[in-house]
Records
---
Amino acid sequence: MENKKILLVHPEISRTKYNFAGIIDNEPLELEYIWTMLKDAGYEPFIWDGQVADEPFADKLAEIKPYAVYICGRTRQENFMKEYCKAAKAMGCVTMIGGLHAHTSYKRFYESYVDFVFRSFDIFGILNVLEERGLASVNGLSRRQGSGWIENDSEPFDIKRLPRPDRTNFYAHPRYRYLELQPCAHVRTAYCCPYRCKFCCRNKMNCGTYVTRDIEDVVDEIASIDCENIYIVDDDFLFNEKRLQRFIELVRERGIHKRYVCYGRADFISKHRELMEELKDIGFYYVLVGLEAADDKHLYRYNKKSDLHANSAAVEILNDVGINAMGMFIVDLDFKGEDFRDISRWVRRHKLKHAAISIFTPEMSSELFEEYRSRLVTRDPSHWDYLHVVAKPAHMSVRRYYMHYHILVVKLFLRAWRQGIYDFIDYKYFIGSMVKNLFKFGG
Ligand code: SF4
């Protein structure tokens, strides 16, 4: 193999205005791991990230003329992943698909222009493919053979095997951000999640096995990153109290001064006030909490293993200690008008400064998908972005549901505007387009 060029691709999130470009732009950490591994193995890897790239994918492909392309993405990016794969295949490249969507919905990529699908976090299988060796033993590999596909078994991947990522791509794009934290570097300390919330596909990743890195190694990596904002992208970082205490100890010992973003559960936060005070002290700035609902009925139905009392206590503690709580809610497809208003009231009553709303979306790989199959109103994977209604609501038309949703979102935007947060956002534009949608899609 003379051509050692490999193009690693993270497609744009969407080609409409409905994305968070310029508000949340995520560092493509998974590609940076692969980039590092390929570089170490003597390849010439390139990253093209549609969120921040200046040139279109087609130009990059024509310029580099790679031997192979590896394309990752989420459900909402499936169309782009396929489009890019087709273009690369037309140029004679080996085509590989990976990433979160492919892990669970791999059969959607069984196409004539796709050669390999990776269903595991084990990035080292990419080397086997490039060197055409030991394919039968590659963890979670699907490979095309004639018109059929051969599927290897998947096993949990030991996260400790990941290389320390080379951040060349990150430093070249200061646009990566989380809200006002810009630039903002991603750090991963674990794969999967120990909980089993019904609507969530994260707990199915890595064969459902939660694995963690040594916290000493994590702190060492954070110290080495030339960026003062760190987004710990684990599905749930606030899980093991002892591990967190060691993290705090090490950060203090090493005199690291940064701001952190992480995910945490309300039930954990509600039981660990002192720990949250300490996390605030070392720089925790945003904690993203899946509050999910403003009533216990939905929390129970989602198998959240938490309750409204924990939600209230978690927000109160975060407000008291001075960490920004980003409360994430789901507007369910069984909502009546009153349920939308309950969320808005709950946010006001609990003085929750930051709130995010997702429309309930049955993940394609979940058993919920089968439950909702007969109610689907779209099959377009780009609508699996939590901003679209993908299945018929139980108690109202899609139009009416959108009306309630848009009213709720406009209320939260106005509240954020009044509080003077997110001053980098063009509020007039966002609220204007929401009101326009209100008339276009609902109301
Ligand atoms: S705690 Fe969060 S990441 Fe874990 S299963 Fe529940 S929603 Fe998913």
Note: Residues 27 and 149 are 32 Å apart (CA to CA).
---
Amino acid sequence: MYDAIVVGAGPAGSVCARQLGRDGQRVLLLDRGVFPRDKACGDALTGKKTLRALQAMGLCEAFLELHPAASVELLVVGPSGRRCRLVSTPNQEALRENYVCPRRIFDQWLLAQCRPWVEVREGIAVTEVGIDETGVTVSGRELSSGRALTFHSRLVVGADGASSLVARAAGLRPARARAGAAALRGYFSGCDVSASQLEFYMLRDILPGYLWVFPLGEGVANIGIGLAPQRSGCPPESLAKFLWNALGTHPALAPRFRHARLEGRLEGWVLPQWNCRARLSRDRALLIGDAAGLVDPLTGEGIGNAIVSGQLAAAEGAEALRAGDLSASRLRRYDRQVHRRLGPELQLAALGVRLLQAPWLVDGLIALADSQPWMGRALSALIGAPEGKRELLTVAGWRRLWRAVALET
Ligand SMILES: Cc1cc2nc3c(=O)[nH]c(=O)nc-3n(C[C@H](O)[C@H](O)[C@H](O)COP(=O)(O)OP(=O)(O)OC[C@H]3O[C@@H](n4cnc5c(N)ncnc54)[C@H](O)[C@@H]3O)c2cc1C
């Protein structure tokens, strides 16, 4: 019998399993993929969220050795074509920069960090999870042989992404069932892109969604498009058509992507959304990452929150395992931690989604950031701030933003 079985070895699952294993718990980590495996994603890792979370685990330096190239400039283009550049000030520490690291590489690296403490089994698709007062039974199939397998544990952690089977089996609403945003991405070669710049195109028809161009070096870029929840009813084919159309006709894109070639396929779809009333735990079960619906609805960023929730679940799970109390009321502490740590920022983002649907407002903000250096600096400081959008909720946060603007005036 394992102490914990973690289903899904994406960022949320690897981090949670590693922390539980280091705590001395006997942990089994299962994934249907065989690593390195791909995952549809923009591949953008923010310094303020993802690297900070890695730093809390002592993994930031190792990541920077793996992937030292940061993108120091954000280019934002509005519906009217108005643009602004937000630049990190020189010598800002690594935690304020952004990184573009293919998930094939990042997820494999993160999984390698947990192998010393965790039993990892790849190529196992979990098909059923049963929970009763005696424990958890996880059934699955080895994909290479078709062999049926059964595992037992005291606790199960659902880190199995947007369509979480664990969430359904545990009677917790799967994140995908909630209204979600949608996104699609592809890798393109032959692109005319700057290696140090992340590009965002706020296109009129998809506001507050956007098209992104994230450079991966040597003319290769991760290019994708994300829609906010209220527009995500549009089918994937329309999203793909929209992406091709923008690349072929947008005045700032068409000349630079004339020779670009799609490598592989466009992939992606639903981004599960935060619902502050949804339960993330029950007796013997916790949900983390996309399975818990923790993607930022405004930016589409989910890796950082997946890692943070993995850390919170491991801390609460380990304590509950040690206390021998895996009841619903005990594990509810995890829900409270997630609400406290991530809730305010996710709610602010949801407010942003409602506000930023008006093209004139988006263009106005971009024009202001372009023409008024203090506004550009304020936005740069907000984007790089450790507390992110939460800075706007506290006096101390406003003071820090003011200092960032005033110090550089
Ligand atoms: C097109 C697109 C672009 C995005 N861009 C960004 C971005 O640039 N930056 C960012 O921060 N976020 C981005 N996101 C969101 C981000 O990809 C997710 O939030 C993040 O991957 C969540 O991590 P996770 O560990 O919770 O789940 P996942 O990364 O989805 O991992 C889940 C794992 O569970 C496994 N699994 C699932 N079901 C089973 C099963 N039944 N049995 C065994 N294993 C199973 C899967 O194989 C997978 O390895 C994007 C999403 C999309 C769709």
Note: Residues 7-13, 30-33, 39-44, 125-126, 159-161, 165, 183-185, 224, 268, 271, 289-290, 295, 300-304, 306 surround flavin-adenine dinucleotide (CB under 6 Å).
